């Protein structure tokens, strides 16, 4: 199985300590250990929509074998895209060409959304830890065609999206990937253009660095909860003047609001995303500056807030043409098979003029193709 998933069934939780003990004691008996690990995998892991479909055996064995083999094979693909991204996939009706992989990096503080239109395929999202097996994160069936995922910490995450059409599907589908800020902008009616001082800016003659973003707005502008949470502290004094600390248990983060003119919440109060909790001011050491909100994010240390607040991705452009019209490499010009749909993308190899190819998708000016040798890559024929 190309990925690990952890959906524990409560019915079997009482058996887990005993199973762990048996696994430990069976360390010298590899056959028993293999059988126990197989049983744990089947018992404690819920089938994904794709796996459930495969187990239902809706097609003959040969068709399903080719279909499953195509899925296993794409985990060896290394094609990479950048956000935002839109790609139109051709459904050829060939189970061996039904699965496709897209590697991407999701920056910290961003929420990934994936949408499909047309003949909706199965979709599965994996985290790709270095030197480890892919870790299953989320998926969809052939009815929904949508998922949303947010980075779990202050670092970017390498992800793999695998999509697979039904074994004999012939309806094309469009895949759109975009990212948006994980948090609501904390000053009502303002956006990232109103940030006037950023993470890392020098303070006190260079003796310290700015641990936040300063968002400028008229005095009295509503300050809102960037996420649902509980008010941990409401204070008045020190460099921040009137401050509020908001605890986000879902993300295990704390949000720091400083230089407030008015505090409108109390300690222990629960708030929803978008609730007004204060008003912009310039208290504390900001009394000589225009009114603004100092917004900070703290978890295991201080985080740069900007990725959590920056603008959503612009909608990606449609491909210049639909897939399915190219069957061989043009004999004129030089054409390279690349790992990314970019003229600067890493070259896999130069394609030969007249070489037979199967076009499976298009994005921008690039074609995703499969060669006779089984190589997959992007190529531009313009």
TrEMBL record:
Where in this chain does the record put each M23ase beta-sheet core domain? 209-302
- InterPro entries on file: Cell_wall_metabolism_enzyme (IPR050570), Dup_hybrid_motif (IPR011055), M23ase_b-sheet_dom (IPR016047)
- Any Pfam family: Peptidase_M23
Residue intervals passing through the bilayer: none
Q: Which GO terms describe its molecular function?
A: metalloendopeptidase activity
Record's superkingdom? Bacteria
What is this protein's name? M23ase beta-sheet core domain-containing protein
């Amino acid at each position: 199985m190309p990925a690990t998933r952890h959906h524990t069934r409560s019915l079997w939780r009482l058996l887990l300590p005993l199973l762990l003990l048996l696994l430990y004691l069976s360390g010298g008996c590899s056959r028993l250990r293999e059988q126990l690990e197989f049983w744990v995998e089947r018992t404690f892991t819920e089938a994904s929509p794709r796996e459930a479909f495969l187990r239902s055996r809706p097609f003959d064995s040969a068709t399903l074998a080719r279909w499953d083999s195509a899925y296993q094979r794409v985990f060896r693909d290394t094609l990479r895209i950048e956000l935002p991204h839109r790609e139109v996939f051709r459904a050829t009706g060939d189970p061996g060409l039904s699965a496709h992989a897209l590697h991407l990096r999701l920056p910290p503080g961003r929420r990934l959304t994936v949408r499909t239109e047309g003949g909706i395929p199965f979709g599965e999202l994996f985290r790709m830890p270095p030197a480890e097996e892919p870790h299953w994160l989320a998926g969809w069936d052939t009815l929904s065609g949508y998922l949303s995922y947010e980075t779990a910490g202050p670092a970017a995450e390498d992800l793999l999206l695998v999509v697979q059409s039904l074994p004999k599907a012939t309806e094309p589908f469009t895949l759109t990937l975009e990212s948006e800020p994980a948090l609501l902008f904390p000053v009502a009616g303002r956006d990232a253009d109103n940030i006037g001082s950023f993470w890392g800016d020098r303070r006190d003659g260079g003796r310290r660095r700015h641990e936040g973003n300063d968002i400028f707005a008229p005095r009295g502008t509503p300050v809102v909860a960037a996420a649902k949470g509980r008010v941990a502290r409401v204070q008045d004094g020190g460099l921040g003047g009137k401050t509020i600390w908001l605890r986000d248990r879902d993300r295990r983060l704390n949000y720091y609001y400083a230089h407030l003119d008015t505090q409108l919440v109390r300690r222990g109060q629960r708030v929803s995303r978008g609730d007004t909790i204060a008003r912009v001011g310039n208290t504390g050491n900001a009394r000589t500056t225009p009114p603004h909100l100092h917004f900070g994010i703290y978890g295991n240390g201080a985080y740069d807030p900007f990725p959590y607040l920056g603008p959503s991705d612009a909608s990606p452009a449609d491909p210049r043409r639909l897939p399915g019209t190219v069957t061989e490499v043009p004999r004129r010009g030089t054409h390279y098979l690349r790992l990314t749909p970019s003229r600067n993308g890493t070259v896999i190899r130069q394609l030969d003029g007249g070489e037979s190819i199967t076009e499976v998708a298009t994005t921008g000016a690039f074609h995703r193709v499969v060669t006779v040798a089984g190589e997959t890559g992007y190529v531009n024929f313009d």
